[in-house]
Amino acid sequence: MDQPPFLTGQLLLAMPGIGDPRFERAVIAMCVHDENGALGIGLGRIVPRISFHGLLKQLDIEPGVAPDVAIHLGGPVEPQRGFILHSLDWGGQESIQVGDRWALSATLDILRAIAEGKGPTRWLAALGYAGWGAGQLEQELCGNGWFACEGSDRLLYDSDVDTRWTEGFLSAGIDPRLLTADFGTA
């Protein structure tokens, strides 16, 4: 029996015409995907009016040496909950390793480590996440809602949030200018 094609460690790119304005041009780093459902962190938009230093101050953590970077809008689920998507050179007790690609942490320990200069070498901060129930993401994939591409370090850490969606398609050899919201059956 073939294994189902789970997308953990890949990026999901919203197809044109996805039908949900919250996910237009979305880029989602898939952290968990199995027969029970899926969880991903959005990397295609920035949360307005708060930066990483502002978040740390709200949590009574001195920013220290942490850069004052933008925070990604991780998704519509639990938008007050913070996540750090990061390189595998740091791991806490609650960190989840995502294949051999990256790790996901959601505790104050990683925030303190970043502020002290002892955290992961590469990381992104996000508030909220995108979640799917069992079989829901598979239905959306069959309905032409999403395209999966490799979750490379370049796309995660080196791409600008405004160009990440386009760069994701280009990395798979697809010119997103040629995509259409129309689809059908042959």
UniProtKB/TrEMBL annotation:
Signal peptide per UniProt: none
UniProt-listed InterPro entries: AlgH-like
SUPFAM superfamilies noted in UniProt: VC0467-like
GO cellular component: cytosol
One Pfam family it belongs to: DUF179
PANTHER family: UNCHARACTERIZED PROTEIN YQGE, UPF0301 PROTEIN YQGE
HAMAP family reported in the protein's UniProt record: UPF0301 (MF_00758)
Family the entry assigns: Belongs to the UPF0301 (AlgH) family.
Protein name per UniProt: UPF0301 protein E2493_20225
Organism: Sphingomonas parva
